[in-house]
Design goal:
The complex is a heterodimer of chains A (about 325) and B (about 240). Helix content of chain A is about 40%, strand content about 25%. Chain A has about 325 residues and is α/β, with parallel strands linked by helices. A six-stranded mixed sheet of chain A has the order 6-7-8-3-9-10, sandwiched between helices. Helices cover about 80% and strands about 0% of the residues of chain B. The chains are: A alpha/beta (about 325), B mainly alpha (about 240). At the A-B interface, strand 1, helix 2 and helix 3 of A face helix 1 and helix 7 of B.
């Protein structure tokens, strides 16, 4: 549905986006990750046709966004950053206006407005003007606007920003459900969201894609992915660590915390973590350690994120 | 066309759900009444025409019209709704025209509401109603020209006050270039053809002749080209702003 090739954007001398390429098919939810100012919003603004790219091509549903923007824009629903809406309108008036702009008329328009009002839980504030609403409601109003024409492509810039935990959960569920039939791009800097919602994620840093893959793939890049953590009620940390180090397949051991004791064993490159976990379990049983838990680490997205995006800034800082 | 109308409708609703339109209409009616009857002395003139009424329009519009139009684009930029508007399946041109027409309609409504003054002169004497109609048409086009200037300045900034002030200054130039005291002063040191050339850029020159009842296509063409030029510039400003 969405094809983006070699996208570049300069604002004067500043390079905001530098050669971004990706595709999103129907049924996919693509998560955009990246530190603030990495170029996420700029990329999304180009995909939605709000700002023209300096270089590169964008096609949505086969229509080129630069050459033929109207049919391309028709396919897209867009929730901009900070969820703007006309402050002086009522929620009903605003949604009606957006539906009309999307070419919906008569009964179809009424039904479309009714549907999104229900989906986004807006019944209670329908006749209130937008400026009197709380941030959460304002956000949902703008979100409702983006899905009012049941678009094939949905582009959401930080859709859960400013929502309370319950609302966040609702929005995530909604995105995941819609992702079955639509092509969705959404940006966030909440990493758990990527896990909860995305089928694929891209990490953008300083205008370029620095990592991409399924959330699972990305987590595998984490240092602790595959490590086995041993938790004990108590015990002598260094003694236990020394014994763990003797186990076959252990590369190195670190003590994560002393009380309660947690010891982490990292497997050698060719050793499987499942075998390591079994061996450690047997060791704990044999030594009669007061075992509390034994866990194979999945890897952590925030660690991957930090390592990928921080290493770059450090590199730059150390340059003369 | 439908898109333009949708935008126009929304803008009109915006004008009337906030005090902007009411304040403009009331103040316009009060001031034009005050100047027509108290300052120009419509009754004392003893002539059945609305000369005393229309003379003030270029000056009244100078402050009131930019006040109507200043929010046209600056508010969209401040709220960020410009991002919604321009990612809808419409062309920027449709948005520009739709917004412009809405604000023009507000001014037109204010002009229509001055009908009691027409009734008054018709009751007191027998004026040439063709001339009066011409005056109204000229006044409406002049307001359109000011509004187009304001549309342009409001696209330049997210600050309504800046947009208002720049619009007033540009409109003042449009007036002064053909204002007799200024042209008389220019004549003393510049070529008459140059002065005429500058004056032909002024709304005064063109409004004056329409007001006299001469509905010349060149004058209408002048106002239309000011509107067209300013709206075109608006579209360029919006595009450059988006392009960064």
């Amino acid at each position: 549905m969405i094809q983006v090739r070699d996208l570049k954007k300069n604002f004067g001398p500043k390079v905001a986006v530098n050669g971004v390429t990706f595709t999103v098919e129907r049924g996919e939810v693509l998560g955009f990750l990246g530190p603030n100012g990495a170029g996420k919003s700029t990329t999304m603004r180009m995909v939605t046709g709000f700002i023209p790219p300096t270089e590169g091509s964008i096609t949505v549903g086969g229509h080129d966004m630069v050459e033929n923007p109207i049919p391309a824009k028709r396919l897209i629903g867009y929730l901009p950053e900070n969820a703007p809406s006309y402050a002086d309108m009522t929620v009903a008036g605003f949604l009606d206006f957006c539906a009309e702009m999307r070419g919906l008329t008569g009964d179809g328009r009424k039904r479309a407005v009714g549907r999104v009002v229900e989906m986004c839980f807006l019944e209670g504030v329908l006749h209130q003007s937008v400026e009197t609403l709380s941030k959460g409601y304002r956000h949902r109003t703008c979100f409702a606007q983006s899905i009012i024409h049941d678009p094939d492509v949905l582009i959401l810039d930080e859709p859960t920003d400013g929502l309370d935990p319950n609302q966040k959960h609702e929005v995530r569920t909604l995105i995941r459900r819609m992702g079955e039939k639509k092509a969705i791009i959404f940006s966030t800097h909440i990493l758990e969201e990527v896990d909860a919602v995305c089928s694929r994620a891209i990490i953008i840093d300083r205008g370029s894609i620095v990592a991409s893959g399924t959330p699972r793939d990305l987590k595998m890049r984490s240092e602790q992915a595959g490590a086995v953590t041993l938790r004990l009620v108590d015990g002598n940390g260094s003694e236990i660590a020394a014994k763990v180090r003797q186990v076959a397949g252990v590369d190195r051991v670190s003590i994560v915390s002393e009380r309660p004791l947690a010891v982490r064993a990292f497997p050698r490159a060719n050793a499987g973590s499942d075998d390591l976990a079994r061996a450690l379990g047997e060791l704990a049983f044999k030594e009669r350690w007061p075992l509390q838990g034994l866990q194979v680490e999945e890897g952590r997205l925030d660690e991957v994120f930090r390592r990928i995006t921080l290493s770059d800034t450090k590199k730059e800082a150390s340059q003369p | 066309m439908n898109n333009i109308l949708t935008i126009t409708k929304r803008e009109l609703r915006g004008y009337f759900s906030s005090p902007v339109a009411f304040v403009f209409i009331v103040i316009f009616l009060l001031l034009s009444g005050f100047f027509t009857f108290m300052v120009a002395g419509l009754f004392q003139r003893g002539e059945a025409s609305l000369q005393a009424f229309f003379t003030w329009h270029p000056w009244l519009y100078l402050f009131l019209v930019p006040a109507v139009g200043m929010r046209m684009w600056s508010e969209e930029r401040r709220l960020g709704t410009i991002e919604l508007l321009l990612t809808m399946p419409i062309t920027p041109w449709q948005a520009i025209v739709g917004k412009f027409l809405a604000s023009w309609a507000v001014v037109a409504l204010a002009l229509v509401l001055t009908f009691p003054v027409v009734l008054t002169v018709n009751y007191l004497g027998s004026p040439d109603n063709g001339v009066i109609l011409g005056g109204y048409i000229g006044s409406l086009f002049m307001a359109g020209a000011y509004l187009a200037v304001t549309a342009m300045t409001s696209a330049m900034t997210r600050n309504q006050v800046v947009s208002f002030i720049v619009a007033v200054v540009l409109s003042l130039f449009l007036i002064l270039a053909g204002f007799p005291p200024v042209t008389n002063m220019l004549v003393s040191w510049a070529n008459p053809w140059l002065v005429d050339g500058i004056a032909s850029f002024s709304v005064m020159t063109h409004f004056e002749s329409i007001q006299k009842g001469v509905l010349d296509s060149r004058d209408i063409l002048y106002f239309l080209s000011v509107i067209g030029f300013c709206l075109f510039t608006t579209s360029i400003i919006i595009r450059t702003h988006r392009a960064g």
